[in-house]
Amino acid sequence: MTVPAVLRGRLGVMVGVGLACVLEAVPGMPAVPRTLAGLWLLLGAPVALWRGTASRVVSTRDASLMLSVGFAVITDILVALGLNTVLPLLGDDRPLGRLDLSAATMTVLLVIGVLAPEEEREEPVAGSGLPRGAKTVGGLGALALLLSVAGPIRLNNGFSGAVSTVALVVIAALLVLLVARRRRHPASLTGTGLYVAATALLLLNSLRGWYITGHDIQREYKYFRLTLGGSLWDPATYVDAYNACLSVTLLPVSVVRLTAVPDLYVFKVLLPLLFAFTPVLVYRSVRNVAPQFVALLSAVYFMIFPTFFSDMTFLGRQEVAFLLLGCSMTVLTDPGRPRARRRWAFSVLMAGVVLSHYSTTYVVVATLGIAFAVDKTWRLAARARESRPRRRSQNDQSTSFVTWWMVLLPAVLALLWAGPVTGTSGQLQSTLRIVAQNVLHPGQAQSGSSDTSYSLLGGTKASPEELLADFREESLEQTESQRAAGAYMPLTKLKSTPTPVVAQADLPVTGAGKALEAIGIPVPGLNGALRQGAALLLQLLVLVGFVVVFRSRNRSFRPARDQITLTAGALAVVALFTLLPQLSVDYSVLRAFQQGLFFFAPFVAAGTLWALRWANRRTVPLACVLTTALFLDLTGVVPKVLGGYPAQLQLSNAGRYYDIYYPHAEERQAAYWLTQRTANDKGQLVQTDRYGFSRLQTLLTGKSQGEIFPTFMRTHSYVLLGTTAARKDEVTVFYRGDLITYRYPMGLLDATKNQIYSSEGARIYR
């Protein structure tokens, strides 16, 4: 009696799970087999076991694979959360150990293996080999990956960004190849090419620095380390919204416990590798309802938006949330499976988003809510025009996928998670309170983030000098009472301490840039105009594409009804972020736009095709030229070649991001020295600048404060100056959603404190 191939595959997966658990239990297991065993338990086996369920929710094999990845991530989070909840009740105060995690994971996988449906496998094609074009795509992809790893390593060792620049050119060539030969490539090869291009683009930024580099990721890493150190996730001990994101606490802890992957590279490599699926998910979600060219163009636009490659690798919790959001959109647009199944799968993915990232959840809930309202209004208007209702079939595309309970469920889960479960709703309440004040008293509203300057709707904004003056006045109000008691420097010593604003320095104009200037084209002005023009162009293409698709008979694609309403909701959310200053301060207009691209990327593609309709057969080549030009400019290749623009972290050891986010060995050594000196005096305060504190927060274990603006300077504190402050006398503050760099008055420290430590990249005063 023969065993069916499907059952043999399922049995092989379960045998592999058992073997992996044995390897995890063996003391002193070498790094390679332990890493392979852990990755099989956390990703390989769950993906294989969820494929059957995923194939009943979506109708294509590539979509079922990516949906299985999303289900696997949620499974890993829930396994760790279950252990963290149950074992302490049984007396185990360190529930996140390796043996506990491996045993619990094996148990859950056994249950999934028994209960989950089996995948319906297609018969293999006889004599099939590599698909057409695989060698070319594979060669370019391999070269892009090699350069995207070598480039950051060279930069981290103090060399130039030439290799990283070449890597971006190769990635651009790979994307052009995928578009130009789209009809010759099977769906699997196109998806693989997009994934490799996205991975290479992300690694150029995520691999910068030998330590944790970036903004939010440094704080995420701190709470991960606290969870790892105690083998326990405790939201009550560390009440912070970052700590409530299981995507950067429990998920990385599981990876570190079950593999030999260093914790740094869980954040710098593994999370970006998961996030790299999002352009492929955008492609698949659009491909469900549109021609291949529109789908590819949508994925490319998603990748070339600057937030994708410059900020998302520093937002680990949002990387995971976006992966699940991309899976949700793929489920939503697939008409090949029953709507009821897809709704429940969508809701499960939304629950995963709630556990992964609070802000992504709030934006999604707002988008869903507005979309639901738009859909109801649309139907009422249509009903008033129709004389008789028509009968609708189960898969009628005019029937909405999003229903009221799908809006209510993630909203309720988000409120419960941020409220009673973790107690981290303070930021949300503060934001809503200030937004309400802005609406009720618009004349008293403060300026929003400078990101709003890229919006078609504009937005109130202030100059850096005005913002720094407001920051000084606010700091004086905050410290007034304690200053009178002698805790802060007296105002008499602060009167002669100017803090002039320092503008961002541009890269030197290159030979190519000088050639342009010789014919009357100023390079700095050209670079600024290109960036501003690219931002406005993308917004115009969204609006044009939306109108064209909605009203024109000669449309590029026929979107699902929910794509139209969700796009309306996403555009409304982006508009709210622009018009309500506090939203742009607490979140980011650019991040909101990146999230909105999950919904309206195909309309950007449609707007592009409409704008180029006059070119007839040349439409596709011109679209490739346009997107490639945008890619090379926005990723920094054009400014790098011409000069005359602030340096970008993925291409240079200079620029604002490098100054405030890049960790240096010298300042880490200084922080360690200071921690040893103050080990016996836990009450002694250490002050450093905001971003120095962010870079060193895992080393400054005592009482510390991330602010050294003169008005915040305490009388009896240590002052640690990081590398940028020590070398350039410059410090950056974050105020009302903007970065403001000012020249620090070193004379104040010299006059009021003694220098007790000095190196090439750090100073300490007492």
Tell me which oligomeric state these chains represent.
Answer: single chain
Strand order of the largest sheet: 2-1-3-7-6
Q: What radius of gyration results from the CA coordinates?
A: 27 Å
> How helical, in percent, are the residues?
55-70%
Largest sheet descriptor: 5 strands, mixed
Structural class: mainly alpha
Query: Count of DSSP E strands?
Result: 7
- The end-to-end span amounts to 82 Å
Using the alpha-carbon principal axes, give the shape.
globular
Mean pLDDT: 89
Strand content: under 5%
Uncertain stretches of 5 or more adjacent residues: 392-397
What's the total helix number? Answer: 32
How are the SSEs placed, and which strands pair?
Blueprint: H1 5-25, H2 31-55, H3 61-86, H4 98-115, H5 134-156, H6 162-180, H7 187-206, H8 216-230, H9 250-258, H10 263-275, H11 277-287, H12 292-304, H13 306-310, H14 316-333, H15 339-356, H16 358-385, H17 404-421, H18 426-440, H19 464-484, H20 491-494, H21 511-518, H22 523-551, H23 561-579, H24 581-586, H25 589-611, H26 619-634, H27 637-642, H28 656-661, H29 665-677, E1 686-688, H30 690-696, E2 704-705, E3 718-721, H31 723-728, E4 730-735, E5 738-743, H32 746-752, E6 755-759, E7 762-765
Parallel strand pairs: 1-2, 1-3
Antiparallel strand pairs: 3-7, 4-5, 6-7
